[in-house]
Specification:
heterodimer; A: globular; B: Ferritin; 13 helices
């Protein structure tokens, strides 16, 4: 069924084209929001060395978001550039997953969130790495090279906190209790995702990707004697309902731009 | 721009051992040899013998610089969440990251002189050591981000370029890397400034208001005039230029660039005296400088308290790491 890999979307039917837009928006919003969460540590991380590392992660994620928004802007071709898509929507119109809607929290929350997200994102990226739409496949190739290091970095921290016992272990377990129930929302079903699978953009339905992710992280959770993430409640709303924490973030990142949305900043 | 990799060659341990002040001589003879070495332009490495006065002087100087990089993160950090475009968000995150990285490099230089990093944080937060005046002020608008990255960093780089030849070699090497990165910050800052100056009337007014507010602290930043012969940091060649030389250099380079953008400066006395070959200006408010750097500035206590709280909140992480390192040793 796979269409030949090409840079234009003319061979996609209108449903698949819309679904591609949804996919790009969900991936971009995820990277955008987690990039902001990471950069909340800039200047106040537990160690100066880790501070520099978190800023690098933030730049990678915002860079990925920017590239994905640019692809989306090209696809939609409706006069909105990447910045307009990133900044000029109201909170309910963002499509990041519920996992990323929690406030920054402590260092254990950050490690838990990053581990859950980075591993899930890795599975999602693998599933679009051979997308029939060449611009996406090329971009994802580049993103995956960077994300590999994110998984290594956060994996080392997860292990360190889990094996340390004492306060570190307790904080990690608490963080997982808060965040893990929302982890599977990275795989919240997309509208018309069947068209993406049929069009050769997504290798498998989100449900299957979630199963792959669980197989991938299972051994780590078992070895560290941590409870694996439960299924998400209301997965179909996994990217729709945003919290007060995101409303705060939204009010921050739009505050300068909204002084004059028409101006160049 | 200096190539950060063009570092001075380091003498082998055997060669350094042959420097007379590293030989087993009576203290006064060592002192004389050391002083002669430094005054002739010689470099000092962390493993060299050095007089207490020199060690203390370098440590105090580098520690204040490190503190300033660390505290300098906070005024800009407040705007990391508010950067108005993806490109600005990336540039500001990279810039603030650089400042944290500079703090880390400089604290390492200071650590080698014998003071542990945690002790330096303790002293900073207890108000026993200082940080630069400009980081005690509030940031009120996005225009501040442009003014800080362009002009505060420019005033800093004028001083820092003169430190690339510091007699203390580890500091001089670090300054080469830092100066190179700071020059990138200046380009980012200037781009923010130019974008606003050429933007709407409101943006231009916002920028002018920020410049008016920052001019006083900028003029105070290098400190009051002091006689060259009394300055021990100059004597030991830890630094190369007096406060007034640095201020004059800053004015020479940046006043024309500021005016060229159609901006004005809030000092009616400011002009170049061609006969004297120097800038005349209204005497900066040195009382304000003293008040601010002793942690009585508008944001001093709030920023120190913010650091105290965040340091306490993350203490468990450092203790976890240290325990694991201790167990592995």
């Amino acid at each position: 069924m796979n269409a030949e890999r090409t840079g234009d979307t003319a061979n996609l039917d209108p449903t698949a084209r819309l679904a591609l837009g949804e996919l790009l928006l969900s991936m971009a919003d995820d990277e955008f929001v987690i990039g902001f969460s990471d950069s909340e540590w800039t200047g106040i991380a537990p160690l100066l060395e880790e501070d520099v590392a978190m800023s690098s992660l933030a730049q990678d994620e915002i860079g990925h978001a920017k590239a994905l928004y640019e692809l989306l802007a090209g696809l939609l071709d409706d006069g909105h550039d990447a910045d307009a898509i990133a900044y000029d929507r109201e909170p309910p119109d963002y499509r990041h997953c519920r996992l990323l809607d929690h406030p920054r929290g402590d260092w254990a929350d950050t490690i838990a969130r990053r581990f859950l997200y980075d591993t899930a994102d890795a599975v999602r990226l693998e599933a679009v790495a051979s997308a029939s739409w060449a611009p996406l496949a090329e971009l994802v190739g580049k993103i995956r090279r960077e994300e590999r290091y994110h998984v290594m970095h956060v994996g080392a921290w997860l292990e360190r906190l889990a094996l340390a016992g004492g306060e570190a272990r307790v904080r990690l377990e608490d963080a997982l209790e808060r965040l893990a129930p929302d982890a599977a929302t990275v795989f919240a079903p997309l509208r018309d995702e069947a068209a993406l699978v049929a069009g050769g953009i997504l290798a498998a339905p989100m449900n299957d990707l979630e199963a792959r992710w669980r197989t991938m992280i299972g051994p780590t959770f078992e070895r560290l004697r941590l409870t694996p993430p439960p299924p998400a409640t209301e997965p179909e709303r996994g990217r729709l309902d945003h919290t007060a924490a995101f409303e705060w973030l939204h009010s921050e990142f739009t505050s300068v731009r909204r002084l004059d949305p028409a101006a160049t900043w | 721009m200096t190539d950060p990799l063009s570092l001075d060659p380091v003498l082998s341990p055997q060669e350094r051992g042959r420097l007379p002040f590293n030989e087993d001589l009576p203290h006064d003879e060592r002192f004389e040899h050391f002083e002669a070495h430094v005054l002739a332009g010689g470099k000092v490495e962390s493993t060299d013998w050095m007089p207490d006065e020199y060690r203390t002087g370098v440590l105090r100087f580098v520690e204040m610089h490190a503190n300033s990089e660390l505290m300098g993160v906070l005024p800009e950090r407040e705007w990391l969440m508010r950067a108005p475009t993806l490109r600005r968000k990336l540039a500001l995150t990279a810039k603030v990251q650089d400042e944290v990285g500079h703090a880390q490099l400089l604290y390492r230089v200071a650590e080698d002189l014998g003071k542990p990093r945690e002790a330096m944080f303790d002293d900073l937060l207890a108000g026993k050591t200082k940080f630069h005046n400009v980081f005690h002020y509030p940031t009120r608008s996005w225009a501040d981000i442009g003014v800080i990255a362009w002009l505060v960093d420019a005033a800093a780089i004028v001083a820092q370029q003169a430190l690339r030849d510091s007699s203390y070699a580890p500091y001089a090497r670090t300054m080469k890397k830092i100066c190179w990165e700071e020059s990138v910050h200046i380009m980012h800052g200037r781009d923010v400034v130019v974008t606003m100056v050429t933007g709407t009337d409101e943006q231009r007014a916002m920028l002018q208001e920020a410049l008016d507010r920052w001019w006083g602290p900028l003029m105070q930043m290098h400190g009051p005039r002091s006689p060259r012969e009394k300055d021990r940091d100059l004597h030991w060649r830890i630094k190369a230029k007096t406060s007034e030389e640095l201020r004059q250099e800053f004015l020479t380079i940046y006043v024309p660039r500021i005016l060229e953008l159609g901006l004005t400066l809030p000092d009616s006395e400011l002009r170049r005296d061609d006969d004297l070959g120097e800038w005349r200006y209204t005497e900066p408010d040195w009382q304000e400088l003293r008040t601010v750097v002793t942690n009585h500035g508008p944001k001093s206590q709030e920023r120190l308290e913010f650091r105290r709280v965040s340091r306490e909140e993350t203490r468990w992480v450092r203790e976890t790491i240290l325990r694991a390192a201790g167990a592995a040793a």
